[in-house]
Write a structure and sequence with these properties.
Order of helices and strands: EHEHEHEHHHHEHEEHHEHEHEHEHEEH
Number of helices: 15
Largest sheet: 6 strands, mixed
CATH class of the largest domain: Alpha Beta
Shape: elongated
Number of strands: 13
Helix content: 40-55%
Strand order of the largest sheet: 6-7-5-8-9-10
Low-confidence stretches: 1-10, 147-161, 428-432
Radius of gyration: 27 Å
Structural class: alpha/beta
CATH topology of the largest domain: Rossmann fold
CATH architecture of the largest domain: 3-Layer(aba) Sandwich
Number of domains: 4
């Protein structure tokens, strides 16, 4: 497993952050991701002792930043008693090993830091499975680095040492674990697919909340549904997806799911590991993209979310942009400016509830094409259908005459197909 941010005596970790600016790269972008790396470190429970921004022509194969700069940073580490170094980019196994030898302290990269936070925040069985898969997939190519104390064992015919044997045994064991985890997650995906089919049969609108981490997604879901999901001003405060029922002003129900937040430089294998969760995004009828309008790099965050959505096949889904945190003056001004760039958008404060009614109206407008209005005359002997209509349709009018119920209902296309034998109209109206 990747190393976690905790010491044996439970003391707080002090970390040094290192980023690299390559020739032709914009320095402000690297500084922005370094700010995010600092937030990640703090979310993991560490204290940032300092930062180094290294400018160089290209990445050095051996030490990533070159031996001279590594020695300079090593002196700083010893003077300031830093317990760990975190790089803003992913390191190869060899680079991590070489840097650790120079610094004489633990060296992590951005992915290891994210994995540590995920491991802390995952609560459900599904979340833990996804985190464990990502950890093992990250660890697999790095096994050799863990067995450097056995390097004296030379291989060769008749001379294969226990170090090589143990390495191969661990590699096979990890590969078996990865296969087992993938099978378990495939069962999760199958179960989620069945749940979505059930929801669609009953006419539920499926809405997924997406957005950059710490944009206010969980706070917004709490505001809309009256739920009490954990929220905190930190990156990846919630990891496990949460689904809640929300009723629109026209009394139409929908199911809204809060998904894992996105960040810049989100590792590809993390996206792959969380496919079971991210499928909620792909299968949704509508995406609600929550944006922290008060953030200084709000445009960059929007681009990062779009990049991940494009990667998982969700960018073409209908999307409502929600510019959050207008209770902040800077956020209010930015939200007004940004909202003009998007056809479907609304400015709100999930924290205070400001303009939430306008968001409800926009949600109803975005989902209006999902319903069909029908006039029905249903025999009372069709008790099963009447029960389904009571649970899953909006009944606008109802009147009972003899052994029949005359109804005006608004239903999903799937339910409309079941009701058409009892329709009193030749063609249903597509309204709402």
């Amino acid at each position: 497993m990747p190393e976690l941010l905790e010491t044996q005596n439970n003391e707080t970790e002090t970390v040094l952050l290192i980023g690299v600016v390559l020739r032709g790269e914009e320095e402000w972008k690297v500084k922005d991701t370094m700010d995010e790396l600092a937030q990640l470190a703090e979310s993991a429970g560490a204290v940032v002792a300092g930062r180094f921004l290294v400018r160089q022509q290209k990445i050095k194969a051996g030490h990533y930043i070159g031996t001279g700069k590594a020695e300079e940073i090593s002196d700083w580490i010893k003077e300031n008693r830093v317990s760990m170094v975190v790089f803003d980019d992913d390191l190869t196994p060899a680079q991590g090993r070489n840097l650790q030898n120079v610094f004489e302290t633990r060296v992590l990269d951005r992915t290891q830091l994210i994995l540590d936070i995920f491991a802390q925040r995952a609560q459900t069985k599904e979340g833990c499975l996804q985190v464990e898969l990502a950890q093992h997939q990250y660890l697999l190519p790095r096994l050799r680095n863990m067995w450097t104390h056995l390097e004296r064992q030379k291989g060769g015919i008749g001379l294969r040492g226990p170090g090589e044997t143990q390495l191969e045994m661990d590699r096979r064991r990890l590969q078996d674990l990865v296969r087992t985890l993938k099978r378990d997650l495939e069962l999760v995906r199958t179960r989620r697919t069945e749940q979505r089919r059930g929801r669609r049969r009953h006419g539920w609108a499926l809405v997924s909340i997406v957005g950059y981490t710490n944009a206010g997604k969980s706070t917004l879901l709490n505001r809309l549904s009256g739920a009490d999901i954990y929220t905190e001003n930190q990156l990846f405060a919630t990891l496990d997806p949460t689904t809640r029922q929300v009723e629109l002003p026209n009394h139409e129900p929908m199911l809204m799911t809060d998904t894992v937040g996105f960040i810049q430089k989100l590792p590809h294998h993390l996206v792959d590991s969380f496919k079971a969760t991210l499928e909620e995004v792909v299968e949704a009828d509508l995406l609600v993209h929550v944006i922290d309008a008060s953030h200084p790099q709000v445009e960059t965050q929007i681009e990062a979310v779009h990049k991940v959505l494009d990667e998982i096949g969700g960018l073409e889904k209908p999307m409502l942009y929600v510019f959050n945190k207008i209770d902040d003056e800077k956020g209010r001004n930015a939200a007004k400016r940004l909202a003009r760039q998007f056809q479907k958008s609304v400015c709100v404060s999930a924290q205070t509830g400001e303009n939430i009614d306008a968001l409800f109206d926009e949600l109803a407008d975005c989902l209006k094409g999902r319903k069909v209005e029908l006039k029905l005359s249903v025999p009372l002997s069709e008790g099963k259908l009447l029960s389904v209509l009571q649970k899953n349709a909006s009944i606008l009018e109802q009147e009972y005459e003899g052994d029949r119920a005359d109804l005006l209902v608004r239903v999903s296309p799937q339910l409309a197909a079941q009701c058409r034998p009892f329709s009193t109209e030749e063609e249903p109206e597509n309204e709402w």
